[in-house]
Write a structure and sequence with these properties.
The protein is built from 12 helices and 11 strands. The protein is of the alpha/beta class and 287 residues long. One of its GO terms (biological process) is menaquinone biosynthetic process.
């Protein structure tokens, strides 16, 4: 059997969307799946180096790896009226050149932040350390992602919502593209199609058995949050819209790339649909 490694982040939505495979609810012929969890910027950096065949990435990274990876249509996370939060200590006022902690150079929130706050002084750190850095006064503000948007300390307050910044920059009510999966173009096309189908099925089954799967994750201490927070968080970032990309989600990704190109983050204008696995290939083979 071929061993296939899925690299994803340690946050609850990625774990939830993968573990139907880990628990044996979904499988693929002649394939043994294994997984590794690393913070999103580490995953982004390793994708830039082509280290993983199937890897979770920030959507903002994709144009940089378009020649080496195809974006998968499944296991996607978007914000719909919510998203990362810029937080600071309560009662403080930020200067124009405030010092801020971001979770990584290639994250979606970092790109949007840099467009909105060009004079801010940025430092990058693991997303798990950002809240404490603000509390300690090491930085004036930080952008919280993942579960921390629901659990941050009472001594902190929200300066701005990334959702509002996205709406201002995008100019309409598109969902906020945060993260997805990418698959190496070194994988044969027929096999890549099979991987995408398997991962889509895993997310679909996870959603259909959300209560049971959540309980198993909690019992095994595979997530960092309690049951009520997990339930709320999954409805934000591992919901029914995570199973397969919709047309409106693809429009949102294209708008993100348009903004990135306009502001000099990318060397070319990318349309996400042009880089996806061509599933029509399977029908041609059958024909």
């Amino acid at each position: 059997m071929k061993k296939t490694l899925i690299a994803h982040s340690p946050d609850a939505d990625d774990i939830f969307m993968y573990y139907a495979i880990k628990f044996g609810w979904v499988d693929m012929k002649d394939t043994f799946f294994d997984n590794i969890a690393e913070d999103i910027q580490t995953l982004n950096e390793k994708a830039l180096r082509g280290e993983y065949e199937i890897v979770a990435i920030s959507f903002a990274l994709y144009p940089h790896i378009r020649d080496d990876y195809a974006p998968l249509r499944t296991a996607v996370s978007f914000g719909e009226g919510y998203g990362p939060k810029i937080i600071k200590k309560k009662g403080t006022k930020l200067k124009r050149n405030f010092k801020v902690a971001l979770s990584g150079e290639h994250t979606t929130n970092a790109m949007l932040f840099r467009i909105k706050y060009p004079d801010a002084r940025i430092t990058y750190m693991n997303f798990l350390d950002i809240e404490q850095a603000v509390l300690n006064g090491d930085v004036d503000a930080g952008v919280l992602i993942h579960e921390s948007i629901l659990t941050y300390d009472d001594a902190l307050e929200v300066e701005a919502e990334m959702w509002d910044i996205w709406q201002e920059l995008a100019g309409n009510e598109l969902p906020l593209p945060l993260g997805g999966m990418a698959i190496s173009r070194s994988i044969p096309l027929n096999k890549a199609i099979e991987y995408e189908k398997t991962l889509t099925k895993a997310v679909d089954i996870a959603r259909k058995h959300k209560e049971k799967l959540s309980q198993m994750l909690l019992e095994r201490n595979l997530v960092r949050i309690d049951a009520p927070t997990l339930d709320k968080y999954l409805e934000l970032y591992a919901n029914d819209e995570s199973i397969t990309l919709s047309n409106i989600q693809m429009q949102a990704i294209d708008k993100l790339y348009e903004l990135g190109y306009k502001h000099g983050f990318y060397d070319t204008l990318v349309r996400v649909k042009d880089y996806m696995i061509p599933t029509e290939y399977e029908e041609l083979r059958k024909g």
